[in-house]
Amino acid sequence: MSEDATVTRAFGGQSMVEPLRRVLVRPPRAEDLSAWRSYGWLDAPDSAIAAKEHDAFCNLLHSLGSEVLLGGPDNGNPDAIYACDPALTCDDGVILLRPGKEARRTEPEALEADLVRFEVPVAARIEPPGTAEGGDIVWLDSETLIVGRSYRTNDDGIAQLANALSDVRVEAFDVPHVDGRQSVLHLMSLLSPLDRDLMLAFPPLMPVRLMELLEERSITVVPVPEEEFATMGPNVLAVAPRIALALDGNPMTRKAMEVAGVEVHTYEGEEISRKGEGGPTCLTRPILRSS
Question: Model's pTM, two decimal places?
Answer without folding.
Answer: 0.96
